[in-house]
Design brief:
Blueprint lengths: L1 H29 L4 E11 L5 E5 L10 E4 L4 E10 L18 E5 L2 E5 L12 E6 L2 E8 L1 H11 L1
């Protein structure tokens, strides 16, 4: 009889531990949801010159690390990221140039752009919210911006 009571208590305890474990597992998983962050990047060249944009000094290999945009032309690409929040602040997203800087080539002249300046700083992009965690970032080259690059390098 005593053995039966001990076994019943162990069984009850086991059920309680299993039940608590299930609730704990469910609660911990709810906080670890991954969301998709969709970004569209549009580079417009409204200047009178052709422009080439390189990530860093041009030694990187991959998609969109070297972009050629004719005068009056555009270049567009999409990138999807994993995000831990369903309401991302677009100013916390970094363009691919933000870590390594950028080289801008206009004709035969090249100009270095440090991180947090010009094309490397998200604050210099026009931002459109297309939906939850879905943004379009537009950077526009003008003759004035190209002239500023020239003056900064002198």
């Amino acid at each position: 009889m005593k053995l039966k009571n001990i076994l019943m208590n162990c069984l009850r305890l086991g059920k309680m531990v299993a039940l608590i474990s299930c609730f704990a597992l469910q609660a911990s998983c709810e906080g670890n949801v991954d969301y998709v962050l969709k970004t569209e990047w549009l580079y417009q060249n409204q200047s009178s010159r052709d422009v080439t944009i390189l990530v860093g000094d041009g030694n990187f290999v991959g998609d969109n690390v070297s972009i050629d945009i004719a005068a009056g032309g555009n270049y567009f690409y999409n990138i999807e990221f994993s995000s831990t929040t369903k309401n991302t602040n677009p100013l916390e997203i970094e363009p691919m140039y933000s870590w390594h800087g950028a080289t801008i080539i206009v004709g035969e002249q090249s100009y270095w752009v440090d991180s947090d300046e010009g094309i490397t700083d998200i604050k210099n992009y026009e931002v459109e919210k297309l939906g939850r965690n879905n943004f379009r970032f537009t950077y526009t080259f003008t003759d004035e911006i190209l002239e500023q690059l020239k003056q900064q390098s002198e």
